[in-house]
Write a structure and sequence with these properties.
Elements lengths: L7 H11 L17 H16 L3 E4 L5 E5 L8 E6 L13 H16 L7 E6 L12 H6 L5 H6 L7 H7 L15 E7 L4 H5 L3 E7 L1 E10 L3 E2 L11 H19 L4 E10 L5 E2 L2 E10 L2 H21 L3 E10 L2 E2 L2 H13 L4 E6 L4 H5 L5 E6 L15 H19 L18
Parallel strand pairs: 3-4, 3-5, 5-15, 6-14
Antiparallel strand pairs: 1-2, 2-4, 6-13, 6-15, 7-11, 7-12, 8-10, 9-11
Helix pairs in contact: 1-3, 1-12, 3-12, 8-9, 10-12
The chain binds (2S)-amino(hydroxy)ethanoic acid and manganese (II) ion (2 copies).
C-alpha cells in the first residue's frame, strides 16, 4: 500500500488560516451566517476543496458539498461539520470536522489513492443558530426535517436566510441528498474535559443528547425607574430572572445529563432608568433521555407561566428547535474502534452533550462521531484549544475509518453490512 501521511503542519496551518477569518482583536471568532467573515471563510474552504481536486456544489440553504470522485459512481461516504461560530467562539468547533477530512483527501492525493466510492465533505449552514435562532439549520433542511421554504424565510429581524445567502452568493439550487450516503462521519472537538483529563486520544460517540431551543418573551410595562413605586411595576426583567433561577433548579434536580440554560436575553427598551417592559430569552434545554427532556420542558413552561402570573406579566413560549436524543450507528462505532486500533490510538466510548449535524443525519444514514480532546474541556469561548498532536492523532483515526468505508484496494475491510441506521 502507498504510504498515507497525515501532514500535521499542513492541517494545523489550514486551521490557523481559517481561524484568522472573523477573528476579533481579543482572539475570539465571530463568524456568523451571511457575514463578510462567513463569506470569506466559505470562499477559502471552497478554494481548498477545489485545489484538492474536489467538485464543489452549493445547495439552496447554502450547504457546501465537496465531492472527491471515486473509481465508481456508487453511493458516497459523507463527512463534514460547520464553520459558523457562536458569538464569541473559538477556532476548533466545527472547523475540525471540515479541515480534518480535507487533510485526509490531501494525504490521499499525495499517496495517489482514489477511493472506490466518492467521498463528500459537507459544510452545513448555521449549525450554531447564532443568527437565525435555529441551530443545525443546514442539516435540518438537508434531511427534510425542516422545509426549505420555511428555513429561507427565517429572519433575524433585519434579513431573511434567503436574503443573506443571496448577498454572499451562497444561494445554490436543490438540497443535498443525504439519504444517498452509505455512511456519515463527523469528527469534532469534544467540548468537554473527559478525553483531556484521561489522556485518551479519541472518543467514539454512542449517543448525542437531545437539544431544544426556545424563545420565551415576558411582557410587562416600560415605565420611569424614578417615579414608579416598587409595588406598581410590571417589570419584565424580574419575571425573566425568576424563571432563569427556576430553570436552574429544574435541570439540577432532573438527572445527571440534564441541562437548562438561559443563554441569551434582550431587554427592552434597555435603558438604565427605565423599568424593563419586555425581555426576550433564548433558552436551551437538553437531556440524553427523551422522556426526561419533555418533562423538563413542561416544567420550564409552567415555571415561566408562574413567574409571569406572580408579577402580572404576559409570557409567550415558542419552541424553535427540537432534536430528539440520538443513538449513533453501532456498526460505524465498530469501524471507528477498528480504525483506532489500526492507528494505535487509545479510545473510549462517550456521550455528546453538544448538538451536532450528525444527529439529524443519523435518522436516515448509518452515522458515527469521533471526538478529539478539548484542552481543559473549554469550548464556545476563545480559549477553546486542541493541540496539533491531538488533531493529528484524531485525523489518522478518521482517515483509517473513511478509507475503510469508501472501499477500494486500500480499504482495510469489507463493505458496510447495513444501509439503514441501527441503534446500539
Ligand atoms: O450548541 C451546540 O450543542 C453545538 O455547539 N451547536
Ligand atoms: Mn458549537
Ligand atoms: Mn460544533
Amino acid at each position: 500500500m502507498n504510504d498515507i501521511t497525515i501532514d500535521r503542519e499542513r492541517l494545523w496551518s489550514s486551521l490557523q488560516k481559517l481561524g484568522e477569518i472573523g477573528e476579533t482583536d481579543d482572539g475570539a471568532m465571530v463568524r456568523v451566517t451571511g457575514s463578510p467573515a462567513d463569506a470569506a471563510a466559505r470562499d477559502t474552504v471552497v478554494s481548498w476543496f477545489e485545489d484538492a481536486g474536489m467538485n464543489v456544489t452549493v445547495d439552496a440553504v447554502g450547504n457546501i458539498k465537496a465531492r472527491l470522485p471515486g473509481t465508481t459512481d456508487e453511493d458516497p461516504v459523507m463527512t463534514g461539520s460547520h464553520i459558523d461560530t457562536v458569538p464569541h467562539g473559538g477556532k476548533f468547533d466545527g472547523v475540525v470536522g471540515v479541515l480534518a477530512p480535507l487533510e485526509v483527501v490531501r494525504a490521499w492525493n499525495d499517496a495517489g489513492i482514489t477511493p472506490e466510492r466518492p467521498l463528500d465533505i459537507v459544510v452545513f449552514t448555521e449549525e450554531e443558530g447564532t443568527r437565525f435562532g435555529v441551530g443545525l439549520l443546514g442539516s435540518l433542511v438537508a434531511t427534510g426535517k425542516l422545509a426549505l421554504a420555511d428555513a429561507l424565510e427565517l429572519s433575524d429581524g433585519n434579513e431573511t436566510v434567503r436574503e443573506c445567502l443571496a448577498s454572499i452568493g451562497y444561494n445554490g439550487a436543490g438540497t443535498i441528498d443525504l439519504s444517498s450516503a452509505t455512511s456519515f462521519l463527523e469528527i469534532h472537538v469534544e467540548q468537554g474535559p473527559i478525553l483531556d483529563e484521561s489522556e485518551i486520544d479519541v472518543g467514539i460517540v454512542d449517543a448525542v443528547a437531545g437539544i431544544t431551543h426556545h424563545r420565551v418573551v415576558f411582557e410587562g410595562t416600560a415605565d420611569h425607574a424614578g417615579n414608579t413605586p416598587m409595588d406598581m411595576r410590571r417589570d419584565a426583567y424580574l419575571g425573566a430572572a425568576q424563571f432563569a433561577l427556576e430553570l436552574e433548579s429544574i435541570a439540577t434536580s432532573a438527572g445527571e445529563h440534564s441541562v437548562g440554560t438561559v443563554g441569551k436575553s434582550t431587554v427592552s427598551p434597555n435603558g438604565t432608568n427605565v423599568v424593563p417592559g419586555r425581555v426576550e430569552l433564548g433558552v436551551d434545554i437538553r437531556d440524553i433521555d427523551s422522556k426526561r427532556l419533555s418533562h423538563m420542558i413542561d416544567d420550564a413552561k409552567a415555571a415561566a407561566t408562574n413567574a409571569a402570573d406572580a408579577r402580572g406579566l404576559d409570557v409567550r413560549w415558542e419552541t424553535l428547535l427540537e432534536v430528539e436524543p440520538t443513538d449513533l450507528s453501532a456498526e460505524i462505532r465498530r469501524r471507528l474502534e477498528r480504525a483506532a486500533n489500526s492507528t494505535d490510538s487509545t479510545y473510549r466510548t462517550m456521550l455528546s452533550g453538544a448538538g451536532h449535524d450528525a444527529m439529524n443525519v443519523a435518522e436516515t444514514v448509518p452515522t458515527g462521531m469521533l471526538f478529539v480532546p478539548s484542552e481543559e474541556g473549554l469550548s464556545h469561548t476563545p480559549e477553546e484549544f486542541t493541540s496539533p498532536e491531538d488533531l493529528y492523532r484524531g485525523t489518522r483515526v478518521l482517515e483509517a475509518a473513511i478509507r475503510d468505508l469508501v472501499g477500494g484496494p486500500h480499504a482495510v475491510s469489507s463493505p458496510l453490512s447495513e444501509k439503514h441506521p441501527d441503534s446500539a
